Amino acid sequence: MRSFRKNSWTICPVRGNWVLPNLGGILPQASSSPVNFTLQPGMSGVTNTMNISTRLLLILSLVLFPLSGCATRVESHEEPSHHESEKESHTEAHDEAEHPEHRVVVTSPLKKDVVSTREYVCQIHSCQHIEVRTLDEGYLQEIHIKEGQRVKKGELMFKILPILYEAKFDTEVAEANRIQIEYDNAASLNQKGIVSPQELAIKKAELAKAKAKVKLAEAELNFCELKAPFDGIVDRQRHQLGSLVEVDDILTTLSDNSVMWVYFNVPEARYLEYQSKDNSGIQIELKLANGNLFPQPGEIGAIEADFNNTTGNIAFRADFNNPDGLLRNGQTGTILIHSTLKNVIVIPQRATFEILARRYAYVVDKDDVVHQRDITVLSEQDDIFVISDGLKEGEKIIFEGIRQVRDGDKIDYEFVEPQKILDNLKNHAE
Asked: What does pTM read for this prediction?
């Protein structure tokens, strides 16, 4: 017999049973925790020759081994403590206190006159804007204007060196004077019967031709002097004094800003609406890039002949007087067209909600039952919608508490007069 040292065995679960290593025993599973036991020094035995009675004793001892400690630990782990339960209850009560259910406020659509405003991005142009180009080639001899200067009609702006044109003009004038002398001499001889009438007529035609050449030379000479064709503002100079310029070179541009033409694109539906009604009551304003309104009112000056087939728009032109010269060619802004809509249905924006690009409102019937209804918005103001279809005057709609109700709910509510609601609107739709 061989003595055993201090050893330890662990019982492990195998398919619902416990296995005792080195003992070959299989025990019914009673717990999910391993069970250890130890042979104290002095115990002896041979692993392969342990007698049957010893094995049975060990098996019975292990089957009856108390496992209450594990169950206690599991229960203590799964059941929350009293302190945690109190904490959760306190949190739920706090959340309910922080987020109380809002009251449901109901109002009615209101029929009234509304000023509708449509906005269009625009481009601002001078009523006259031209390029000042050269008509002859030569050296730029004189510049009589400065960039940004205001000029009057007929004022001299540029002068090109005129030596060749002056010489040509002098030559043609001299030739015309010579032919004039010949014609006067022929006329005198014709009175004496020396020169026939036919010869006198030929001299007269030569004189007319010579005078025409003088006018042509004078015109070419005048091409060297560029004068302002109208009152306006000079733009940037493209050439400096002494520059050699060619025919058709741009020297500067000139803008008449007394009246500004403002162009903006209008969709086809708005164009048809404009043409189908009396537009005498509309007001047109111009909002500048800094958000300020231009002080002068505008009016529709023209509508282009053709639609743009790519965008489906047509260009309108609004004319604005510009007495202070604030507007310049090339500016941008926004056109505001105000028109009065008579006896239309209006509701607060907060009384509506949007689903998949469609606008809805909750209508309360005579039994206080909520119904979701599709509405059509004709125009949008700062805090209200003008409704063209879907609601009638006198119906009840939910103003506050939209998120608390569903279609078909029966509700308790507080009714507020629509005019009082509209007088205190500050928020848009949810």
From this structure: 0.62
